[in-house]
Amino acid sequence: MYEAEIVLRHAGQLLTVPPSATGGAPDDVGLIEDGALAIAEGRVLWVGPTAELERHVKVTGDTGQYDLHGRVVTPGLVDPHTHLVFAGAREREFALRAAGRPYLEILAEGGGILSTVRATRAATEDELVRLALPRLQRFLTYGVTTVEAKSGYGLSLEHELKILRATYRVGELHPVRVVPTFLGAHAVPAEFRDRKAAYVRHLVDEMLPAVAGERLAEFCDIFVDDGVFSLADARKVLGRAKELGLRPRMHAGQFNDHGGPQLAARLGAASADHLEHVSPAGIRAMAKGGVVAVLLPGAALSLGQTPPDARRFTEAGVRVALATDLNPGTSMTENLPLMMTLGIAQLKLTPEQALRGVTDHAAAALGRSGRVGTLAIGAAADVAVFDVGDWRRLAYHFGVPHAEMVLIEGEVVWTRDRIRKVAPRRGSRKG
Amino acid sequence: MYEAEIVLRHAGQLLTVPPSATGGAPDDVGLIEDGALAIAEGRVLWVGPTAELERHVKVTGDTGQYDLHGRVVTPGLVDPHTHLVFAGAREREFALRAAGRPYLEILAEGGGILSTVRATRAATEDELVRLALPRLQRFLTYGVTTVEAKSGYGLSLEHELKILRATYRVGELHPVRVVPTFLGAHAVPAEFRDRKAAYVRHLVDEMLPAVAGERLAEFCDIFVDDGVFSLADARKVLGRAKELGLRPRMHAGQFNDHGGPQLAARLGAASADHLEHVSPAGIRAMAKGGVVAVLLPGAALSLGQTPPDARRFTEAGVRVALATDLNPGTSMTENLPLMMTLGIAQLKLTPEQALRGVTDHAAAALGRSGRVGTLAIGAAADVAVFDVGDWRRLAYHFGVPHAEMVLIEGEVVWTRDRIRKVAPRRGSRKG
């Protein structure tokens, strides 16, 4: 019998979310009533009904013990698509779009992404760190414990490396786990205007080797759409990324379907993201290739787009993840549970699918199914405790924060201070 | 020169929002840069640039002084349509609707409103007070200082009075200003099934006189739509309400247009609410009658409806207000700034119109333009301080709380404790 370092008792509902990587079904959230969780060495040691806890794990005077009084426990939430590190804000553009200006038109005039590029290039690495930290903290207050973070507002060797180094530092300074993605192919920078091919060569020949050499990114992403990059560009960039050990992912079909999902599947991409416009053939290819569909209802909302119908993906056997798409242009929010609300109300996911979308399926989009986004035994002890009586209220009671306490790798990293440790009363920091 | 009890200095942007009742234009938010506000006897004493403050008001050693360090100041926000007082939750129904079940079908089967009626009837007045208080507190953390609150989950003399008494007590216990509306005509209760005419008689002959006799409501509302009440019912109920001194308002056109807006105008209603379905003639009648259009994007979102295009109203000269519609069925949220986001992104309001929609136009919907929802001199000193650098970020950076400090009638009633009073250092409670 193993000794627990921390135990949580009396979760009214504890959702383990069985990982898809080991056969977890698309609608199974692994609900345990009056649940308990035992943690040792930063991992889930045991999970089950509170009544059975001490038959399975040893609780000693050193064990940190919490009584949750019926609150809901889920795996720490996972946001698989954010643009965490940037400078500047674009509230004016939000108003322009409301007045009917199309996004691609704003982009073509040097607004959109490129205005954030100017602000981000002007910022120092320290400034970017300082700006990103409160965003991570806000994520934490919504129960989010893992956040993917893309570069892509530098668009030059110097500034992309600066952003990725800031991303690395933010992940070291803050308890939230940060998964870095290189998105040098986010837009064609002004100095390469009308010379896109030259920028793609620069990406392939100089930027990618430098990023890989410093081990600054785990994934490589590219924005395939009208006015940005083509499928042929994606083949070059993601092909080279794979050779250098970066796993591909792709912004595909946000405005038009260029066949990105099929290429994503062929390249073994972890995910294809956006997908407002995707053909049945694209969906079939994603299902066959195990590519996760990362849907971004916040961006569709901000852009006044019709959000995609998630049932097209779920019915074809594609795992659907949900993300905030946190970015200064089209989705300025860290409220990941709000994406569950939009996922259910607009994308037509079931509540179970929406929860998997911000836990296991999001983890799968980051190549981490079974490691995070689940409370399966052996997974990272990333835990969110919510002050609700039913887990479906996370989506139903929307726009407001519900998290009470968050653990990452078994450490309490955030709390509203309404949950008190019941033992040991004068414990070590470890408890 | 008058003596100030409280002064706020150095608001990066201070928005006075000139009241429409005294000619405030539909797009004017009254922006003052580096603004200051002086308060005396719970009212706005003076407002203008910080540099001019002490030329206009006397600041003494007793004046409570705050330096806002560039934060944004708006009038305390006004939510003109909520169902604040109820028991029970309906997260299961949220999932049913996501699975494609129409709301009116759920209602016809005794779900919807009627399931909340059962839970609310079973609750005591004390329980209803206890349930409503945290909702008001949540409103406050979004900068909301006035909330309309409808009855309508009792649907019998005994239980409607219980709800309205609970509403009155909540308003006494909590600093947020609560404006009560009698909505006995929210649905036909089970015991009057197939006897709607008898229920309408009961409303007119017994419930309305009792409500008016106890002075428990300022407004009377009715839900005019398929399967609920007809225009003829509305004529009877609202006509009698007017005789008894209650001002009319109306749920109109949520699912179908029955001509409610025209009747609302004829009766001198303060507002017509929902309006997903409304004819050009209905809009013209509202413009002519000065009826405020209260739009509810949270309900449209939860129901998967196409939200109304607010430009139809603004272009016709109708004042548009935005509300959460807080209710356990179709819009469970206290996040009023999120309605500004939806108002801009989906309803096509400008940021200026969206701000007026939760301040002056919302106040007008409650018959209070010039008294709340504005920082005009003489208005209630209800003030929201937000930790943003530009007021448009309230809508742009969505789903997350931005309020830092809230005053109601000149008293600091809520703060995140990051704004410190600079003088007097050891002040009285009054400061």
Give a written overview of the molecule:
Two copies of one chain form a homodimer. The first copy, chain A, is of the alpha/beta class and 431 residues long. Chain A has two domains: 2-75 and 373-415, Roll (Urease, subunit C, domain 1); 78-365, TIM Barrel (Alpha-Beta Barrel), CATH 3.20.20. Helix content of chain A is 34%, strand content 23%. The first copy, chain A, is built from 16 helices and 20 strands. Chain A has helices at residues 53-56, 91-98, 103-108, 113-122, 125-140, 157-173, 196-213, 231-243, 260-266, 280-289, 297-302, 311-314, 336-345, 351-357, 360-365, 393-396; strands at residues 2-3, 6-15, 31-40, 43-49, 57-58, 64-67, 72-75, 77-79, 144-150, 177-185, 219-224, 247-248, 250-252, 271-274, 292-295, 320-322, 383-386, 403-408, 411-415, 421-423. In chain A, the strands form three sheets. In chain A, strands 2, 3, 4, 6, 7, 17, 18, 19 and 20 form a nine-stranded mixed beta sheet that branches. In chain A, strands 8, 9, 10, 11, 12, 13, 14, 15 and 16 form a nine-stranded parallel beta sheet that branches. In chain A, strands 1-5 form a two-stranded parallel sheet. The first copy, chain A, is globular. Mean pLDDT of chain A is 94; it is low at 427-431. Chain A binds chain B through residues 89-92, 94-95, 97-100, 138, 298, 301-304, 332-335, 338, 341-342, 344-346, 348-351, 389-390, 392-393, 395-401, and chain B through 89-92, 94-95, 97-100, 138, 298, 301-304, 332-335, 338, 341-342, 344-346, 348-351, 389-390, 392-393, 395-401.
**Greatest interface and its participating residue counts:** A-B, 41 and 41 residues
User: Would you identify the CATH architecture of the largest domain in chain A?
Assistant: Alpha-Beta Barrel
The amount of helix of chain A comes to 25-40%
CATH superfamily of the largest domain in chain A: Metal-dependent hydrolases
**Beta-sheet strand percentage of chain A?**
15-25%
Indicate the mean pLDDT of chain A: 94
Give the number of helices of chain A.
16
CATH class of the largest domain in chain A: Alpha Beta
From the 3D structure, determine the CATH topology of the largest domain in chain A: TIM Barrel
Structure classification of chain A: alpha/beta
